[in-house]
């Protein structure tokens, strides 16, 4: 019997390795930009065509390579960063594995032109499918230019996996942002399809953050700076009013390397615990500098996951640094320990504590709970019969009352829904009452409904926009004074991707130069609103829904717009507005849930309420 185990050819082995390192054009952007930084470049250009599918090129003015190094760099595990095993534990460079260029050459057509300052001529090399097809001397400026053409030309399945150009461009901008933020002293430019998207002049970290994330953060950031013998922390964190509904503007860097760490993110969130609601996330750009021997970056090929030797102490330092920064700039609430003079005049302070009062206090259950053993968690047995029906209240409803019984046929389910719709029909005699400026109480047959006005309006708007997207576009009201929007580069790319669907839904928005847009029209039924706030909120909600890969882009956009336009809890409604909202709700299909799956109303039946009162 012949042997079965064979050594794979280099081109096949490289393609297998490339699957981990180069997942999409943005992966190559990260690797090439990091190589340019490691080469000591002071100016780096990124050029993309068709979101990197046709061309992705990085040009730098770094140290360049010799003729031998230029050819060797495409070999697997060829690196200038490591000489022995000890070097793996003292890594100061961005790259070190020696896999990036070999992986890129395995799945794309690569052209490299490089020259060192001390050489008279440079070197030009073409590589295709891991094979060098051309190598010759060439005139070249100092530094390196590497062009990656026709990504995944030899892996059709992987190429078909790529998303739309707009979606891939968003990923490229994301990786570009992470690298450029870590090196604010380097000039970076990004050009897409012949148009310059970003031009980032060298400057301070704060200037780079504002260039990348938008001018809205300019006066709303707090400086973080703590130095210890073990580690240093510096950067910026946003004031509470800048918090958003998504985690987009959150960046951690360890020794200038962008990382993802839910553990350290929790440390920052805990510092904001008393300042933000649970569903809001602060902006932060934090850099942690510590001895490379205390951290392992060789965990994953993307180098975005790392391990700390003592992660608990890093957590504590991060939390303390952010808390200290917020307190130093009077962001966190403070306690006033000065006793108010009026408190001294209260009877409990000024009057004597008589013996009768002492005896009465010592006989109370509260006093015994604090002074006697085994009483701290003791609960007295209720003497009355007020809770005698608690078991009945929690008994499950009869099966025929369930809204969706999956054992029933679709026709039976439809009848159940129709019966509920008939029971909840709103007529001229139906009395509607708003409570807490949030809920609408509506009487029904032997029950009443408690309707959440925001959830109900979201369902109504969602249904209307779904119908508009499937049929005729929404009527557009032209703006008398068009509003100009200035967005961050990443949000500008996202909005550009959504423009066709927004137009279908009644929002006429046109590009207006670099990262700017003009709102020419809005839906005719939309009342006067702040277009800037509307777009910002919609983009944030869109990014919030983007974690669900099962939902289409149009679906995410409709959900986002429905949430943005819905009447918010806490708003007072007139009798007419309540009646219209409830009428529209029960015309929807389904009407019992909002687009996010939460209920639009709760029904309280008479027999259930009577059981609660022990009747």
From TrEMBL:
<dbReference type="InterPro" id="IPR038973">
    <property type="entry name" value="MutL/Mlh/Pms-like"/>
</dbReference>
<protein>
    <recommendedName>
        <fullName>DNA mismatch repair protein MutL</fullName>
    </recommendedName>
</protein>
<dbReference type="InterPro" id="IPR014762">
    <property type="entry name" value="DNA_mismatch_repair_CS"/>
</dbReference>
<comment type="similarity">
    <text>Belongs to the DNA mismatch repair MutL/HexB family.</text>
</comment>
<dbReference type="InterPro" id="IPR042120">
    <property type="entry name" value="MutL_C_dimsub"/>
</dbReference>
<feature type="domain" description="MutL C-terminal dimerisation">
    <location>
        <begin position="431"/>
        <end position="573"/>
    </location>
</feature>
<dbReference type="InterPro" id="IPR042121">
    <property type="entry name" value="MutL_C_regsub"/>
</dbReference>
<dbReference type="InterPro" id="IPR013507">
    <property type="entry name" value="DNA_mismatch_S5_2-like"/>
</dbReference>
<feature type="domain" description="DNA mismatch repair protein S5">
    <location>
        <begin position="209"/>
        <end position="327"/>
    </location>
</feature>
<keyword id="KW-0234">DNA repair</keyword>
<dbReference type="InterPro" id="IPR014790">
    <property type="entry name" value="MutL_C"/>
</dbReference>
<keyword id="KW-0227">DNA damage</keyword>
<comment type="function">
    <text>This protein is involved in the repair of mismatches in DNA. It is required for dam-dependent methyl-directed DNA mismatch repair. May act as a 'molecular matchmaker', a protein that promotes the formation of a stable complex between two or more DNA-binding proteins in an ATP-dependent manner without itself being part of a final effector complex.</text>
</comment>
<dbReference type="GO" id="GO:0004519">
    <property type="term" value="F:endonuclease activity"/>
</dbReference>
<dbReference type="Pfam" id="PF13589">
    <property type="entry name" value="HATPase_c_3"/>
</dbReference>
<dbReference type="InterPro" id="IPR020667">
    <property type="entry name" value="DNA_mismatch_repair_MutL"/>
</dbReference>
<keyword id="KW-0540">Nuclease</keyword>
<dbReference type="InterPro" id="IPR036890">
    <property type="entry name" value="HATPase_C_sf"/>
</dbReference>
<keyword id="KW-0378">Hydrolase</keyword>
<keyword id="KW-0255">Endonuclease</keyword>
<dbReference type="InterPro" id="IPR014721">
    <property type="entry name" value="Ribsml_uS5_D2-typ_fold_subgr"/>
</dbReference>
<dbReference type="Pfam" id="PF08676">
    <property type="entry name" value="MutL_C"/>
</dbReference>
<dbReference type="InterPro" id="IPR002099">
    <property type="entry name" value="MutL/Mlh/PMS"/>
</dbReference>
<dbReference type="InterPro" id="IPR037198">
    <property type="entry name" value="MutL_C_sf"/>
</dbReference>
<dbReference type="Pfam" id="PF01119">
    <property type="entry name" value="DNA_mis_repair"/>
</dbReference>
<dbReference type="InterPro" id="IPR020568">
    <property type="entry name" value="Ribosomal_Su5_D2-typ_SF"/>
</dbReference>
